[in-house]
Design goal:
This protein is α/β, with parallel strands linked by helices and about 550 residues long. It has 15 helices and 27 strands. A hairpin with a 5-residue loop joins β1 and β2.
């Protein structure tokens, strides 16, 4: 059986052993170059170990905190004939109790799956919840001959990037994955002269499909480090782009802010970012102010405005659904806020709020907006639905049986936005919308209003609605992580935040709490999970506590 993705890896292993597979940074200072010739025995060893402990077509979850080990075990699993999925490893920023509770619930949804524990993660906490007969460890054995597996099962397992509860399971076939890789490459005019630079986690579709699989499948050099290296030294990204003449990079929105706030352009030569032809904001929604801030900061070291790019991506469509054309920049328009919130229509207004496009549909993907059973005209806000040859068939395991498609076969994304002249403008998650006294309020607008406040940690604000029975409408609740060098008057910071929100949006937030660093709940893709933050807040309120009491832990 021919499997195009593995065929291309096998061809590179056999025909181009000297070609660099990945330039991997274990630290921010030095790259370790691994050629396809060096990769081959690693894959043979991993495939042999996995084959000895599994059967063809099995599902294998990989728990490992080192990206290079994730890559070689994931590729080894493909050659072993099993369907791999990389899970989020435990990190110091995650609540350990919640992590293991969620992992245990996840395992219950996949009773036939195996879990691979790399040595670095094989501790007592994991062993307590993983049954020995389902747990794989690295073990010596006969290296496997690398050949194309004969079974025709799913190629990969992903998890949706939703931020509510356990992430839903997505199985993707060989055909669906390669269609996505081909369409995405054409949308970006990808060729082998490109170089992808990434620190993105491989348990998320942006890092796995957008960067790793794209590089392997199209023979494009990949420069990779871990999210932890990048977070400690954000300037690594620019140094790597300069060193390897990087041309393509994908980032979540918060990363644009981190780089603009923490990296000094004076540390780099004027042409450092001149090789970049697309640095893609892959967030929903794309934040215009973040892109503008980033461009202002780094234009002096070669960042061109037309290199800024955007995409709307989701695991259910393998990865990208839309992409701004290369060299076109990101389309940004100003619209009237009142019309958008009250009438759900985007009307041009030179003094209005900025909304950034997520690009145009990639090849063989159609996007439509629906409201009240009708297709929306240009500018009308509605539910985003997709039809594509890269779509999954439905959720597997977590989420199995939940409706995902409309009666006429379109995937209902759960996001809302509008279109203009073919461009998709994503406004946010449908379930996150706050309705206060009949007004539709986008939580992202509230969160952006606090971006410039120095006492609040950038990108660490969650806004949501909590129903107020006495008033018959939702209260606006805002939780913001403290970001100052030392604890000061928290009440004063909260009042200042309320003033900023009122000035920017003309609304009053009924509750603003300043919380300790890392109190807010994030998804594996780095986005704030408003739903989980809301649930955590409500649970504390039931106990007559407030999130602010935990600031004492930081003092």
């Amino acid at each position: 059986m021919s499997r195009r993705f593995l065929d291309r890896i096998l061809a590179a292993l056999q025909e181009e052993p000297q070609r660099v597979f990945v330039s991997y940074y274990r630290s921010a200072s030095k790259a370790e170059e691994i050629t396809f010739g060096q990769l081959r025995p690693l894959l043979e060893e991993r495939a042999g170990s996995i084959r000895a402990q599994t059967s063809p077509g099995d599902l294998l979850f990989i728990l490992c905190d080192d990206p290079l080990e994730q890559i070689v075990w994931w590729l080894g699993a493909l050659f072993a004939g099993v369907t791999p999925g990389i899970l989020t490893p435990l990190t110091p920023k995650l609540d350990q109790r919640s992590y293991f509770q969620d992992l245990e619930k996840l395992i219950e949804h996949y009773p036939g799956a195996h879990l691979f524990l790399h040595d670095a993660t094989a501790n007592a906490e994991y062993s307590a919840i993983l049954s020995p007969d389902r747990t794989l460890r690295a073990q010596a054995g006969a290296p496997a001959k690398l050949e194309i597996p004969s079974h025709g099962g799913p190629l990969i397992f992903q998890q949706s990037s939703g931020t509510t509860g356990l992430r839903k399971g997505v199985l993707l076939s060989e055909q669906v994955v390669t269609r996505q890789l081909d369409a995405c490459a054409r949308a970006l005019a990808l060729d082998r002269a490109d170089v992808i630079v990434s620190w993105l986690p491989l348990y998320h579709d942006m890092g796995l499909v957008g960067c790793l699989m794209q590089a392997v499948y199209h023979g494009v050099p990949l420069v990779q480090t871990s999210p932890f290296v990048w977070l400690q030294k954000p300037e690594w990204l620019f140094a790597a782009i300069r060193e390897h003449r990087g041309t393509l990079c994908w980032l979540p929105n918060f990363a644009f802010n981190v780089l603009a706030d923490r990296v000094a352009p004076s540390e780099f030569d004027p042409g450092t970012l001149a090789t970049l032809r697309a640095i893609v904001s892959c967030s929903e929604p794309v934040v215009a102010s973040s892109l503008e801030k980033f461009h202002r900061a780094f234009a002096p070291i070669g960042l061109r405005g037309e290199a800024l790019s955007s995409s709307y991506a989701l695991a259910e469509n393998t990865f990208a659904a839309t992409q701004s054309p290369p060299g076109a920049g990101v389309q940004i328009e100003r619209v009237n806020r009142q019309k958008l919130e009250a009438d759900r229509i985007a009307v041009a207004d030179p003094n209005g709020i900025e909304i950034a496009s997520s690009g145009v549909p990639i090849e063989n993907t159609r996007v439509r907006l629906r409201r009240d059973g009708q297709t929306c005209a240009d500018g009308e806000v509605g539910d985003i639905e997709l039809s594509s040859d890269c779509l999954f068939d439905g959720y597997f395991g977590v989420g199995a049986g939940q409706p995902a498609f409309t009666a006429d076969g379109w995937y209902a994304t759960g996001d809302y936005g509008y279109q203009r002249a073919g461009e998709l403008f994503v406004l946010g998650r449908k379930n996150d919308l706050i309705i206060r006294a009949g007004r539709n309020i986008h939580p992202a607008d509230i969160e952006r209003a606090l971006e410039a406040e120095p006492a609040i940690k950038p990108g660490r604000v969650a806004a949501f609605g909590v129903f107020n029975e006495s008033e018959g409408t939702e209260d606006i609740v805002v939780l913001a992580e403290f970001g100052g060098p030392r604890v000061s008057d928290l009440d004063a910071i909260a009042r200042l935040a309320q003033d900023r929100i009122a000035a920017a949006l003309g609304i009053a937030a009924q509750q603003v709490e300043i919380v300790r660093p890392n109190w807010l709940v994030k998804s594996s893709s780095g986005k704030i999970s408003r739903a989980n933050c809301r649930a955590k807040y409500i649970e504390m309120r039931k106990r007559r506590e407030t999130p602010r009491i935990f600031i004492a832990d930081y003092a």
